[in-house]
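// run 5 | inverse folding | seed 20
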């Protein structure tokens, strides 16, 4: 039974009390992310009723068509962060450079990296979409202006990471390196309530998620691995079932709760795959590892990749520990 009084805010405050050095800034930042998520969630619920479906006519920094909800969600995160004065820098999928929210940033501790609306191709069909976020420490809090390079931190340096899934219900899942916790939005009272405490992922799953339409471009090892998952062998609980929502947050949420593997590999056409390292792969990798799972580019841990560009892409294999390590083995054998 869910304790309706354990809201996200109360949970964050109680955790903060365990850290005597905490100033409350970080707790406020998480609470503001929750606030932005509620605003986005509210708009998504009304998407068929207000003029928010479809495209803006622009393309973003990735060369992709910008949907109206992409732009709305991006503006919500920028506005909430600017108003609350908790972060000075934002890296967003929708913005080419580092967005600087203020000129006087001395003493600010954190930067935010965000994919405001992940899985936007699902918007117009009333499918699940999400927000992914990552919080970095500013290396030098005494500076007003930190160099762009400061945002190029390895995933292992993240202070916190999480996502919001806008599905049949809206759920916010986050980690600060002390377990993974999920909060479901109670639309009646407008509060996120603790519904999934200390999520742990099974060591092996029964489902895999990959865009099989790209098969002709895959490297041999990926074809072999997927064929292996589809073979019948009751002893190793195969065949696996295919589940692909086409929204990373929703595909990952299933795997976080039930185990299995999500893959967006590099292929002959796109050697680094599609997903962005800093605000898609790395935050989900931190959640996966905190839940007992794993995340890999196929050849190295996602959390150990040193980024060289804020919008850089990486192949992603994420999910149950044993499933990810078997995918890595197939890839190793091909490159040997
Ligand atoms: P987006 O952030 O522009 O929405 O793109 C990322 C999305 C992921 O949510 C999803 O897993 C993937 O792209 C789907 O890509 P594809 O349509 O190639 O399968
Ligand atoms: Mg995305």
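// decoded
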């Amino acid at each position: 039974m869910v304790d309706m009084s354990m809201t996200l805010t109360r949970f964050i405050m109680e955790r903060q009390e365990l850290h005597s050095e905490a100033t409350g800034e970080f707790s406020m930042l998480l609470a503001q992310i929750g606030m932005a998520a509620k605003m986005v969630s509210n708009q998504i619920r009304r998407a068929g009723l207000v003029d928010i479906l479809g495209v803006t006519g622009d393309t973003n920094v990735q060369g992709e068509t910008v949907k109206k909800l992409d732009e709305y969600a991006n503006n919500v995160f920028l506005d909430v962060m600017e108003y609350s004065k908790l972060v000075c820098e934002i890296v967003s999928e929708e913005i080419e450079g580092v967005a600087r929210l203020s000129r006087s940033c001395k003493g600010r501790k954190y930067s935010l990296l965000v994919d405001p609306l992940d899985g936007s191709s699902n918007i117009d069909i009333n499918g699940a979409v999400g927000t992914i976020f990552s919080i970095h420490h500013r290396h030098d809090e005494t500076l007003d202006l930190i160099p762009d390079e400061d945002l190029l931190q390895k995933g292992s340096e993240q202070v916190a990471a999480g996502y919001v899934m806008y599905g049949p219900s809206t759920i916010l899942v986050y980690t600060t390196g002390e377990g993974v916790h999920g909060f479901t939005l109670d639309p009646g009272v407008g509060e996120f309530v603790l519904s999934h405490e200390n999520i742990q992922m099974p060591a092996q799953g029964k489902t895999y998620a990959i865009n099989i339409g790209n098969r002709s471009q895959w490297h041999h090892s990926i074809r072999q691995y997927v064929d292996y998952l589809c073979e019948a062998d009751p002893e190793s609980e195969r065949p696996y079932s295919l589940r692909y929502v086409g929204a990373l947050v929703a595909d990952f949420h299933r795997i976080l709760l039930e185990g299995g593997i999500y893959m967006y590999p590099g292929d002959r056409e796109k050697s680094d795959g599609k997903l962005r390292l800093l605000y898609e792969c790395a935050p989900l990798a931190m959640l996966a590892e905190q839940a007992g799972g794993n995340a890999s580019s196929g050849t190295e841990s996602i959390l150990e990749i040193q980024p060289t560009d804020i919008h850089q892409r990486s192949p992603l294999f994420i999910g149950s520990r044993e499933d990810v390590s078997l995918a890595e083995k197939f890839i190793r054998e091909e490159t040997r």
